[in-house]
């Protein structure tokens, strides 16, 4: 019977690592739990919140119609913002000074003026231009610029300015050598951008785009001022008639929170998809597994 090989010195001298205790953290966690429990008890037990009224209107038909219009506005405005934002970002990085200057001016104007002002401007565009077009191909601005059209123009064009900066930052995060290598094999500039740069930039673009989507969901409430009936408008029309302001505001808030939660979950999975190969957590897990295997062999 052969003797087992001697263990290395570092293995014989290994010490048991005792995790550091943090009593302050546990005390702070206990205080926070007590405060949260007290706040929940106060909110639920306060009859002035009129939770019965909240339950009656939470799934009322006007509220559900407002939720559907809010979702439609969010999706449509973000689609406009993402598509136009990519175009503006590419123009901003163009070597042509006229194109890059025009893209910079667009971003500067729409990011520098309040969204509420832009919505009102588009809604009252007919005061400046009664007709749109030329000659026999002209239409009344009041007929073309409906509340829905004004809402899409205001939200979409404003979002495009912010998305252009997000996309530009993502493109600049890709090492220049990637584009140079693609150009060296004969790809055109548009092909390099579409097939090489943008797929790698998505890892940087997706997280702020998810935040912008959740922000757009809440920004749709501003179309109340131009008379488009989304969630907030539907709630306001009800409480202006019933004078149950607080319960209806709670109904709107609960729907915004629910939709934001769903969007956050979707953002998480999209980020994980585009972050494959860049996950520090995954690398650390592999490293720890390799370490454990090495220790077992030793």
Low-confidence stretches: 281-298
Termini, distance in Å?
Answer: 20 Å
CATH class identity of the domain at 72-228? Mainly Alpha
The CATH level-2 architecture of the domain at 72-228 is identified as Orthogonal Bundle
| Category from helices, strands and their pairing | mainly alpha
The averaged pLDDT comes out at: 85
Strand order of the largest sheet: 1-2
User: What is the third-level CATH name, the topology of the domain at 72-228?
Assistant: MetI-like fold
How would you characterize the largest beta sheet?
2 strands, antiparallel
Which outline best applies?
flat
Radius of gyration: 28 Å
Determine the oligomeric state from the structure: single chain
**CATH-wise, what's the superfamily of the domain at 72-228?**
MetI-like
Beta strand count: 2
Helix content: over 70%
Helix count, DSSP H or I runs of 4 or more residues? 13
**Strand portion, in percent?**
under 5%
Order of helices and strands, N to C? HHHHHHEEHHHHHHH
Summarize the structure.
With 298 residues, this protein is mainly alpha-helical.
Walk me through what this model shows.
- The chain is mostly helical and 298 residues long.
- It has 13 helices and two strands, in the order H-H-H-H-H-H-E-E-H-H-H-H-H-H-H.
- Strands 1-2 form a two-stranded antiparallel ribbon.
- Helices cover 74% and strands 3% of the residues.
- The C terminus is likely disordered.
- Helix 5 crosses helix 8 and helix 9 packs antiparallel against helix 10.
- Strand 1 and strand 2 form a beta hairpin.
- It has a domain of 157 residues: Orthogonal Bundle (MetI-like fold).
